Amino acid sequence: MTIECAQIDTNDDRKLRIQIINKGNANAKVCNMKIFYHRSGKVMVRSTTVSPIPAGETLWVLMDVGAPISAASKVTMRVDDPNRVRESNEGNNSYTYK
C-alpha cells in the first residue's frame, strides 16, 4: 500500500484527508496507519485503522492530527505500521506532507 497524497480538510485544519492506494495484485487486509506531528521539538503520534483495500483500488482516510497542521514543523505518515500486510514493495509505506 502506498500513501499517494494528503490534503488538509477544508472544514478543519486539524484533519488530513489521506489517499491510500493498493498498487499490488492482491487484496490488502486491515492495517494501521500512524501520523507523526512534529512541533517545538516534540512528536505527537496518532493512529487509526485502515479498512481492507482491494487490489488496484484507492481508499481515502480522514485523520485528526490533534493540532493545527499549519503549526507543525513536519507531518509524516506511515501506512501498515507495524508491518503486517505482505506487499511486493515494503519500502513505499511512508509519506511526508510537510
Q: What's the topology here?
A:
Layout: E1 2-9, E2 12-21, E3 31-39, E4 42-50, E5 58-64, E6 74-79, E7 94-96
Antiparallel strand pairs: 1-2, 2-5, 3-4, 3-6, 6-7
Describe the structure.
The protein has 98 residues and is mostly beta strands. It has a single domain, classed as Sandwich (Immunoglobulin-like), CATH 2.60.40. It is 0% helix and 53% strand. It contains no helices and seven strands. The protein has strands at 2-9, 12-21, 31-39, 42-50, 58-64, 74-79, 94-96. A four-stranded antiparallel beta sheet has the order 4-3-6-7, with no helix packed on it. It is globular, with a radius of gyration of 13 Å. The two termini are 20 Å apart.
**Judging by the overall fold, what is the CATH architecture?**
Sandwich
Count of extended strands: 7
Taking Cα atoms only, what radius of gyration do you get, to the nearest Å?
A: 13 Å
Q: How confident is the prediction overall: mean pLDDT?
A: 91
pLDDT below 50 for ≥5 consecutive residues: which ranges? none
Percentage of residues in helical conformation: under 10%
Please state the overall shape, judged from the principal axes of the Cα atoms: globular
CATH topology: Immunoglobulin-like
Strand order of the largest sheet: 4-3-6-7
Task: Estimate the strand proportion.
Answer: over 45%
How many separate helices? 0
What's the domain count?
1
Series of H and E elements: EEEEEEE
Helix-and-strand structural type:
mainly beta
State the separation between the terminal residues, measured CA to CA: 20 Å
List keywords for this structure.
98 residues, four-stranded antiparallel beta sheet, three-stranded antiparallel beta sheet, mainly beta, Immunoglobulin-like
